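Long-time lurker, first post. I've been practising inverse folding by hand and with some scripts of my own, and I keep getting stuck on stretches where the structure tokens seem ambiguous. Below is the full token string for one chain I'm working on. Before anyone asks, I'm not after the true native sequence, just a reasonable design that respects the backbone. If someone could post their per-position residues I'd love to compare against what I wrote down in my notebook.
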């Protein structure tokens, strides 16, 4: 996810009387070119073919400068199409197949919808936001559509806003930010410098080179290490259910937070964004009761200078794993920069190969990878969607504003828009885990942690006192197994239901020697499932497959390491029947 969800405060889709017409613009670029899709394009095409359009398309609103004519607005759009190959790109493919090739047209045409208003609904900016959101609801045809769906809003003949939806296969939030900046430059009479960022076809060629293939393979190994050793879900706790949640947005604007962040950066001599990342990860892991913070950081590819102004989709996650088992804030901060760089270096990969690896590794581990935590810090990028917002006219010490709900496939999402002169960020939290007051406490707790870090090093034993955020209480039925929080009774219930109600007992033992993340060897807790099956037709492999199919949306359930199938009741200490079969059920021994 590289563009933020609907900002808090946006209005629902407004309906108003407006005359509608269509302007058709022809363009002529360079020669027609074709080649393979990029890794980022393949990643987003996979999502586009799977997800609903309003969930995967992105949008933006561009205020039209005072005095700009409709002709100038449309001519600037035409100039962008000529300038950027991504805007002249389609993905031809047969119905039912997945595109593997992109074609850049030398010439073509696209349309702009013009909505003429005698009076714009108030507030006009929120109305324009609603129009842009409405434009997201229609699917882009990958094989033929222009990747922007612009709607020009006029008031008494004067253009006021350009509201647009965009295909995520060819743009991301930062790409829209670049386009907006260049469009405004053209409308102001300025001249654009030569475009030097790699085109999508340039990126595809780089990725297909021997060095590019090595980087992709290295990235898969980085992901595999985390998937094999990290928690399968950050929020494995009572109330965490389902694979998609609807969350209300909360925006924090805080001059206190900005001053604290700057002070902590000065004291520690670290970059402000690294300090903020550390604070976010520490507070998240503290709240979740985890020893490691695993988070997706989608903007990572934009931090390469050559790609900072690329008009393409670079939407691929950097997977960050930050061990927080350290004594203090500064000790975690010292590790955060290296962990972030390691994640960024491994954020370009073959998406299909990645998901094949995820399916293989999670099947072998008996887990389900949950993308629970996402932090998208776009404050340091040269061009972002955040720049479309008007500059803060004031600097509130600490302000929290509620916004509309958004459907998200994650449990905690943060967008950092600005760090100076105010800290401005939005977060969306699973309401079962972060009801309204808890979400506000998390946001203010982040500011309080930054303030404490600006004054001195913060012992992690004092995080609850410093931030006001308490770790989750899981209860005595939960235990940590293979780096994951697990509820064995829930494992038994889920496995029994997956097997049509067969009696199941799950117990925790400690028989396998394993090295922990810190390198110390010890008896690793294991899960053993005893399943009663009178006819003897069940195998460990079938039991494992049935449970794996039931895992999504149950973060407190991990597959047993061994399945023991018995004849008669499984419960101990009552005598069990003879063992019919036993084994891991996995493709490889654990």
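-- Answer (accepted) --
I ran through it position by position. Result:
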């Amino acid at each position: 996810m590289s563009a933020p969800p609907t900002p808090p405060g946006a209005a629902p889709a407004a309906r108003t009387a407006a005359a509608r017409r269509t302007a058709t613009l022809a363009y002529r670029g360079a020669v027609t070119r074709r080649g393979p899709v990029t890794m980022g394009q393949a990643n987003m095409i996979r999502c586009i073919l799977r997800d609903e359009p309003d969930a995967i398309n992105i949008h933006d609103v561009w205020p039209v400068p005072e005095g700009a004519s409709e002709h100038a607005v449309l001519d600037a759009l035409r100039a962008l199409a000529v300038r950027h190959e991504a805007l002249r790109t389609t993905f031809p493919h047969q119905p039912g197949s997945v595109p593997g090739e992109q074609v850049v047209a030398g010439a073509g045409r696209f349309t702009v919808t013009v909505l003429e208003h005698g009076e714009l609904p108030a507030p006009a900016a929120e109305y324009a936001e609603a129009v842009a959101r409405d434009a997201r609801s229609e699917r882009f045809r990958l094989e033929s559509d222009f990747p922007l769906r612009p709607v020009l809003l006029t008031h008494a003949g004067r253009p006021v806003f350009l509201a647009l939806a965009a295909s995520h296969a060819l743009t991301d939030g930062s790409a829209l930010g670049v386009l907006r900046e260049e469009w405004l430059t053209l409308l102001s009479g300025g001249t654009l410098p030569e475009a030097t960022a790699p085109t999508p076809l340039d990126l595809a060629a780089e990725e297909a080179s021997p060095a590019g293939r090595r980087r992709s393979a290295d990235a898969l190994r980085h992901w595999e290490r985390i998937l094999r050793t990290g928690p399968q879900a950050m929020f494995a706790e009572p109330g965490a259910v389902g694979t998609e949640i609807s969350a209300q947005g909360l925006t924090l604007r805080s001059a206190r937070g900005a001053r604290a962040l700057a002070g902590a950066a000065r004291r520690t001599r670290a970059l402000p964004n690294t300090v903020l990342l550390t604070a976010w990860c520490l507070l998240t892991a503290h709240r979740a009761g985890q020893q490691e913070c695993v988070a997706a950081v989608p903007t990572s590819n934009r931090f390469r200078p050559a790609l900072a102004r690329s008009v393409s989709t670079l939407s691929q996650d950097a997977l960050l794993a930050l061990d927080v088992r350290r004594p203090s804030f500064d000790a975690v901060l010292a590790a955060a920069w290296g962990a972030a760089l390691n994640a960024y270096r491994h954020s370009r990969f073959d998406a299909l190969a990645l998901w094949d690896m995820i399916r293989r590794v999670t099947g072998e581990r008996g887990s389900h990878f949950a993308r629970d935590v996402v932090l998208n810090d776009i404050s340091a990028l040269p061009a972002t969607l955040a720049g479309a917002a008007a500059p803060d006219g004031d600097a509130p010490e600490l302000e929290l504003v509620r916004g509309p709900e958004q459907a998200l496939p994650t449990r905690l999402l943060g967008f950092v828009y600005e760090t100076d002169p105010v800290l401005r960020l939005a977060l969306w939290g699973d309401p079962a885990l972060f009801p309204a007051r808890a979400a506000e406490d998390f946001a203010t707790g982040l500011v309080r942690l930054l303030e404490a870090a600006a004054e001195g090093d913060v012992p992690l034993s004092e995080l609850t006192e410093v931030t006001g955020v308490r770790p989750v209480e899981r209860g005595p039925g939960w235990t940590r197994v293979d780096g994951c929080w697990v509820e064995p009774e829930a494992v038994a219930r889920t496995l029994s239901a997956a097997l049509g109600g067969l009696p199941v007992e799950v117990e925790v033992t400690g028989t396998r020697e394993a090295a922990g993340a810190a390198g110390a060897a010890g008896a690793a807790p294991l899960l053993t499932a005893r399943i009663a099956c009178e006819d003897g037709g069940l195998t460990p492999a079938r039991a494992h497959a049935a449970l794996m199919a039931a895992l999504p949306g149950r973060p407190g359930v991990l597959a047993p390491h061994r399945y023991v199938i018995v004849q008669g009741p499984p419960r101990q200490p009552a005598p069990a029947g003879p063992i019919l079969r036993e084994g891991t059920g996995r493709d490889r021994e654990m």
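A couple of notes from the structure itself: The first strand starts at residue 19 and ends at 28. The first helix runs from residue 39 to 50. Happy to go over any region you disagree with.
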